Amino acid sequence: MYKSLRVLVGFAVLCLAHAAQAQNIGNTPYSRYGLGEYNYNLGNVRNAGMAGVGLSAGNSFQANTSNPALLYYNSITVFDIGVAGQVKTIKNATEKQTDANANLYNLTLAVPVSKRWSSAIGLRPYTVVNYEARTTSEIENKPTAIVEQQYMGEGGLSEAYFAHGVRIADGFTIGGSASYIFGAITKEASSAVRDESLNAISNEKVVYSERIRYDNFLFRAGANYRKKVTDTYYLSAGSVYTFGTDLEAKRRSSFERRTLSDNVLDNNILPDSSEGSVNLPSSFRAGVTLDNGKNLTLGADFYTQKWSEFRNFDGDSELGNSYRVAVGAEFTPDANSIDNFFERITYRGGLYYGDSPYISKGETIKDKGVTAGFTMPLGRSSIYDLYQLNGAIGYGSRGTTDNGLIKENYFQFSVGFTVNSRWFIKRRIE
């Protein structure tokens, strides 16, 4: 047991060090708006298989981080790690391209403190910025010349959190979490003039580069109530409120001269640095779940956030209000089956639909998709340890090619590993 603990702690430290430097899990032109592409799933790979559903779906053998009030149900120590990636096709009316990448999805350690209280620490992506766009235009009265413009962005914000869940009364639990949001976003905009009659300047471009580093604390409060409604089924209702906060921001910017192959000729033209803040609006999540306490769970979640109240570093509003509705389910044929391994696997599925916070050319970008997932036991379980392999896939689309807009079709995948271990057992001498 203690050897496993040392291995897990060492592995977690390595993952934390890596995740602080890299966090891309997606590639989308819409991430140029606001702080990037928002991570809707506050849970793990289990929740991803159910379209993110989990605000009221307690589980004793999975870290319940989607709602801190559910941590109470983690009565033994849980270590959970997951990676995720996606393959995305981006297209407009005339062109399309395909991109793919993967990175850390979640890292969680949940530990019971007492019979009524469990805690968890973890790391997950908060937003992701990863885009590149190019445009060309002609210069009026100069048919031999064109202007090439390029826009690029990368980086994002990470969330390190410390959460608690406490049972107040029979079936009623509350929880809260404190998160540290941190990270940096780099954006560049460049222009280059190509003119067959002016070869001397056609090999250079002017680039505006800015890097903004963000950080501050974010707080959430959650509650959940579970009650037996029939001889077989339980009904649960949960909610999470995320308080608004202002992220401190430090911006460094400058103009640069570069070759067309991005070799820097001069990187210190009109340098500037300034400090400010951006506000993250509050959000609300609610969910209901019906389960039989054994092998079947049916759930639905709702999320909404007033991104229209967001203001960027320059004080501009560039986002709209968003919402998301998701339904999901999980089923285990027979967790105690001896002869059939596939009956011990938990199967999951889900659907989601909603408005993203992105508004392009006056149209709100909608997002919809379907997911599936599983959890399978690994090796032989004992009263001391239980190992699980988690997987999830999803297919969705966002946006449209109408009115000159961009549509994204994406295939997402995630794989995770969960260890349940009893760390604190009193020795008995007979």
Automatic annotation (TrEMBL):
On the tree of life, the source organism's domain of life is Bacteria
* Stretch forming the signal peptide: 1-22
Q: Which UniProt keywords apply?
A: Signal
Instruction: Fetch the Gene3D superfamilies from UniProt.
Output: Outer membrane protein transport protein (OMPP1/FadL/TodX) (2.40.160.60)
Q: What is this protein called?
A: Outer membrane protein transport protein (OMPP1/FadL/TodX)
Q: Which organism is it from?
A: Pontibacter cellulosilyticus
